[in-house]
Amino acid sequence: MSPYLKLNVNYGEILTRRNRKCLKQQIMTSKVVYTGDLRTTATHLRSGSTIETDAPIDNQGKGERFSPTDLVATALASCIVTTMAILGKAHDISVDGVECQVEKIMTANPRRIGEIKIDMDFSRCGPYTDREKTMLEHIAHNCPVAQTLHPDCKQTLSFNW
């Protein structure tokens, strides 16, 4: 049997039996533990920071923490502003102070996120040229989380310049 078990295209390297465990440790992101009462604790392995989740009230939970679907909607907003900041570093555009209001709309049959609405307020930063606004709006619609979500999950973004 060949020592080359599979090609990991993302990393552009051939994984052997010997280095697979090492690479797995590098790409592990988090550990999630079910703690009972419809709650979990997620630990970010690199930093040790934690997030607790709770099922929402409309799905047998207490709604006292982010639900897993709240985190998905919030991740979209976080990814948008993070990628805007990355773009901003390269083009000398500050997005410091941008605020996002996030609304998650659930659908039934199957129960899933039907729409995520994000209202972005740039009134504390800027001013921006038309070109900068176009660049920021483009990156918002094309951030990694936006590209990962299923096409049936509507993403409604509004920009308050």
How would you describe this structure to a colleague?
This protein is an alpha+beta fold and 161 residues long. It folds into two domains: 4-59, no CATH class; 68-160, K homology (KH) domain (GMP Synthetase, Chain A, domain 3). The chain is 32% helix and 33% strand. The protein is built from four helices and eight strands; from the N terminus they run E-E-H-E-E-E-H-E-E-H-H-E. The strands form three sheets. The protein has a three-stranded antiparallel beta sheet, with no helix packed on it. A hairpin with a 2-residue loop joins strand 3 (30-36) and strand 4. Helix 2 runs antiparallel to helix 3. The longest helix has 24 residues, at 68-91. The N and C termini lie far apart (60 Å).
Using only C-alpha atoms, the radius of gyration works out to 20 Å
Number of extended strands: 8
Proportion of strand residues: 25-35%
- Work out the helicity level: 25-40%
N to C succession of SSEs: EEHEEEHEEHHE
Largest sheet: 3 strands, antiparallel
Could you outline the blueprint of secondary structure elements for this entry?
Layout: E1 4-8, E2 13-16, H1 17-27, E3 30-36, E4 39-44, E5 50-54, H2 68-91, E6 99-107, E7 112-121, H3 130-141, H4 144-148, E8 154-160
